[in-house]
Write a structure and sequence with these properties.
The complex is a heterodimer of chains A (345) and B (325). Chain A is an alpha/beta fold. Chain A is built from 13 helices and four strands. Chain A has two domains: 218 residues, no CATH class; 79 residues, D-Maltodextrin-Binding Protein, domain 2 (3-Layer(aba) Sandwich). A four-stranded mixed sheet of chain A has the order 2-1-3-4. In chain A, helix 1 packs across helix 8 and helix 9 runs antiparallel to helix 12. The longest helix of chain A has 31 residues. In chain B, the strands form three sheets. Chain B has a six-stranded mixed sheet with strand order 5-6-7-3-8-9, sandwiched between helices. In chain B, strands 11-12-10-13 form a four-stranded antiparallel sheet. Chain B is built from eleven helices and 13 strands. The longest helix of chain B is centred in the middle third of the chain and has 16 residues. Chain B has two domains: 214 residues, P-loop containing nucleotide triphosphate hydrolases (Rossmann fold, 3-Layer(aba) Sandwich), CATH 3.40.50; 73 residues, Alpha-Beta Plaits, CATH 3.30.70. Chain B is 31% helix and 27% strand. Classes of the chains: A alpha/beta (345), B alpha/beta (325). At the A-B interface, helix 1 and helix 7 of A face helix 2 and helix 3 of B.
Chain lengths: 345, 325
């Protein structure tokens, strides 16, 4: 019988993974639950009723009648003190009081829904008072495919999973093996070091791709995410992303001798990318001076490429630059890791 | 026949750049013959593991020459690794892999070797082939570690404290594996701090202390060098071993006694002929020092050799630092 080291090493990585039920949950279950949770929290809603409070006094009888008739308003009539309290607590968006001849709107102009409420209340009251609209307009309601928050979110979550999986999957596993003196035992055999490192990275890839598939499927089934791009393009971007973070993980893990050390280092590497790389909100919200740094981060480029491919159906060649930056983040750390990697404890 | 291992004037200094560098080895010489089972015997911290790891190519010596199977580390690493098998002092093999899978993995690293099933049978783990490593007992794990060392069919086997912490039965199983390897005409280098293990297993031993070899030879040779092959130990009923007790020099002058030393709570005499020594000893004690609490006689062991050379016991934990004198 012939034995192939790379194959056996790879097989052992696979077995270790699927024999670890917790690992399977954190890899496959957790991202899906996260997507569902965020998707529900940020689902698109039609603008609801405007919460409006009006002071209970004879001068407001007329506007109370107007607002009570309109289904777009949820009217509360109360004493002056009670009205002030409702506004302060945010139970109502706007408070209307009579003010001599006219009326006064009280609202927090920094809250978008309060500003919207002010315009809708004003519109209703002005029309009831006899204002005529001069321009002829008609409303057509449209929903852009792929324009919802959940559409923005899912590619970002995919990117974040590729990052976490690559860094933890490679970094933690190798440090654990170093602590167990298993790396030392392996390097005492004629095993080729390259085979070992390839098996760790290769194993990571194989766990990652079903994870991508599950997450995309769940997002499509539950939220009807628009997957415009070709599956092959998405697959290729994911592979480059997974390789990139696996290489980085190897570098981070190349010297660590304690699990605490590697946990800290990995979090240190991931933290800026969680915040800056446009997973939960667009990276363009940060000031221009920070953009060159943000755009150089691998997760930013991975998220950009995933969004372009999934939501816009961009072709692979059009994503050459992000993929190149990503690949550099994989190859350079891998080469450095080969040099610095400590096998003995 | 060429020696399996030669090392000359081996030195190893740890923490070279720090204030207090530690000299683990201070000029260690060894020549291990092909086909023998050679033991490195010494207390914890004597430099055994440092020595074996340098010979295994896992540590670099600070200075000195090493030849393994006629080759040198740094020149023929791959060729040496193909021909040696190693069991480290502490390796935790992957918990979630089965015994068979683990041995198969190690087999795949070698160009030539034995069939995994055959090696697993040789270490009596056939029934556990499909069991995960985490389900094995300490002794079974250690035998698996040895199986991983044997699966490349090595000419030279390194075992670093293979029986430390094991129960007597597991120790005997490991000894059988080592004896089988020796029967094939292969070389074994084993470190241990159990003298009985070295006596039973090894053709020759080197006693290592404070980073150098302080005695070398077959166990019977080393014991013979004590001058007597028996040890008579006794303690007095009043517990007196120092001020009130008999003078050790006076006891050493008794017929057939070669040496006398004070032990915790008693005396140990190295003796050539116990039947000559004991009557004389009893006569002396009866006239001057009262009741005997204990009197035993036994064959001298490597432990006595070590005590004779260093004044300490092998397992004396107070003397386990790495520093050279």
């Amino acid at each position: 019988m012939k034995y192939y080291a790379l194959y056996e090493l790879f097989l052992c990585r696979m077995r270790q993974f699927y024999r670890e039920p917790e690992a399977i949950f954190w890899t496959y279950g957790f991202p899906i639950l996260l997507t569902i949770g965020l998707g529900i929290a940020f689902r698109n809603r039609p603008p609801g009723q405007v919460e409006v409070a009006v002071e209970d006094m004879p001068a407001t009888a007329q506007i109370r009648a107007v607002l009570a008739d309109d289904e777009g308003f949820d009217l509360q009539v109360a004493s002056a003190d009670e009205c002030a309290r409702l506004l302060r607590k945010g139970d109502v968006d706007i408070l209307v009081v009579a003010d001599g001849e006219g009326y006064e709107y009280r609202f927090d102009s920094t809250r978008p829904e309060a500003t919207l409420a002010r315009h809708r209340v004003d519109d209703a009251l002005q029309r009831a008072a006899g204002r005529a609209d001069v321009l002829q307009v008609a409303d057509t309601h449209v929903t852009e495919r792929g324009g919802r928050y959940i559409d923005f979110l899912v590619p970002g979550l995919l990117g974040m999973n590729l990052m976490g999986g690559g860094l933890w999957g490679v970094g933690f596993v190798t440090v654990d093996m170093r602590i167990r003196r298993l790396l030392k035992r392996l390097v005492a055999t004629p095993m080729r070091k390259r085979d070992f490192l390839l098996s760790v990275i290769g194993g990571r890839m194989v766990f990652t791709l079903p994870e991508m598939f599950c997450l995309l499927m769940a997002a499509w089934l539950i939220f009807r995410i628009a997957v415009v791009g070709s599956v092959i393009s998405i697959f290729c971007v994911a592979v480059v992303g997974a390789l990139s973070f696996a290489g980085l993980g190897l570098l981070v893990a190349s010297r660590a001798r304690k699990l605490e050390t590697i946990s800290g280092l990995l979090n240190l590497v991931m933290l800026p990318m969680w915040v800056l790389s446009g997973t939960f909100f667009s990276a363009s919200r940060f000031p221009d001076v920070m953009q060159p740094f943000i755009q150089a981060l691998p997760l930013t480029q991975l998220n950009n490429a995933l969004r372009a491919v999934i939501l816009d159906g961009a072709s692979l060649p059009s994503q050459a630059l992000p993929l190149l930056i990503l690949a550099a983040w994989g190859v350079i750390p891998f080469v450095l890791a080969l040099r610095w990697f400590r096998w003995t404890y | 026949m060429k020696p399996a291992i030669v090392c000359r004037n081996l030195k190893k200094r740890y923490d070279v750049r720090k204030k207090d560098p530690v000299d683990a080895l201070v000029g260690l010489d060894l020549e291990i013959r092909a086909g023998e089972c050679f033991g490195l015997l010494g207390p914890n911290g004597a430099g055994k593991t440092t020595t074996i790891e340098i010979l295994e190519g896992l540590l670099e010596p600070t200075s000195g020459e090493v030849e393994v199977l006629g080759m040198r580390w740094g020149e023929h690493d791959e060729a040496i690794r193909q021909r040696i098998g190693i069991s480290l002092q502490e390796t935790k093999l992957t918990d979630k892999l089965a015994v068979g899978e683990t041995v198969r993995l190690f087999r795949s690293f070698y160009d030539r070797g034995r069939e995994p099933d055959e090696v697993i049978a040789a270490v009596s783990l056939t029934e556990k082939t499909r069991a995960w490593v985490q389900k094995l007992s300490g002794g079974q794990k250690q035998r698996l570690a040895v199986a991983c060392a044997l699966v490349g069919d090595p000419e030279l086997l390194f075992l670093d404290e293979p029986t430390t912490g094991l129960d007597p039965q597991s120790r005997r199983q490991i000894w059988d594996i080592v004896r089988d390897h020796r029967k094939l005409g292969r070389t074994t280098l084993i470190t241990t701090h159990y003298m009985d293990e070295a006596e039973r297993l090894c053709d020759r031993v080197a006693v290592v202390d404070h980073g150098r070899v302080i005695a070398l030879g077959s166990p019977p040779e080393l014991i013979a060098r004590l001058g007597g092959e028996h040890v008579v130990e006794f303690a007095l009923a009043n517990g007196a071993a120092d001020a009130d007790g008999p003078d050790p020099e006076m006891l050493a002058a008794l017929p057939s006694v070669r040496d006398c030393r004070l032990e915790a709570g008693g005396y140990a005499l190295t003796v050539t002929e116990p039947h000559v020594c004991i009557p004389a000893l009893l006569a002396t004690l009866r006239t001057d020092h009262g009741e005997l609490a204990r009197l035993t006689t036994r064959h001298a062991s490597l432990e006595d050799v070590f005590v004779n050379l260093t004044g300490r016991h092998l397992t004396d934990e107070r003397e386990t630092d790495n520093t050279a004198p």
